[in-house]
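Appendix B, Record 12. Input sequence as logged:
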Amino acid sequence: MRFDLHLRDKPFDVVGMGLNSVDFLTVVPEFPTLNSKMRIRQFSRQGGGQVATALVALARWSIKTKYIGKVGGDDLGSFSLDSIRREGVDVSSVTSEPDATNQFAVILVDGLSGERTILWDRDERLMYREGELRKEDVCSGKILHLDGHDTRAAIRSAQWAKKEGIPTVIDIDKVEPLTGKLIRQIDFVITSSRFPALMTGIPDREKALVELQRQTSGFLCSTLGHEGAMALVNGEILYVKEFKIKAVDTTGAGDVFHAGFIYGLLQNWEVVEILRFANAAAALKCLDLGGRKGIPTLEEVEKFLKQNYLCFSR
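Logged structural output:
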């Protein structure tokens, strides 16, 4: 199956509207217990956030990208914005909220498994107010990438894109009152492993994905962490298996998966090839600490796929 996308000529290949963050990553020998002390193994401060990190990955793969979002008027906001700008992502439409604290997260990474626990905070003033988003900015790319955190802004952006014939991709992880309305606007709904069950109330992941299809006409896929990914293709469940790696840190793996998926869309690959590439990119990211430090190059993904006996074409 190949997606028949008619991508319009635009200033950017991909525009993303959504989260940016500053991540304080702390690797610990094991997850701490209550009332305990533990020496950390490693610490790193990096830029993060679902959409921002996906755009950074795409920019490193020579895709022309533009980020739309809000940063706080504090040092964290400056750090976050600079971490995106220096990657070559256009940030001319980013808004700074002078009195707001930028979103940040304290991420505990289990040194044994590489799995992470995220403690985060987001200032409500970082949400877009009515009239602040500009249609010409949102619709300046061939593909629009969103997340589900500023739901009203995402709905407005998706509606604009639909009227302009711009395909939309979403990284969706949580359920809010308007989430159903949002995903109905989206062409490619790429969820976390837990989202279909949260949205439908069905614990079985395959049945939940099938039920979720009733709520959106878009292509459906769920990332499954170390198990790979699953998608609904022509009404049937398709599994793309995981790659065996020793994970250092899973932070940002989903963000890089979305970047890989969008890259494949731009190359007009078959759906299985897109999912394998996205899976491989996400797996390789887990070999290093943080959502961005471990983003692999295209050459590294190609080599990895060939080593795992999978076809890959540039």
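The mean pLDDT is 95.
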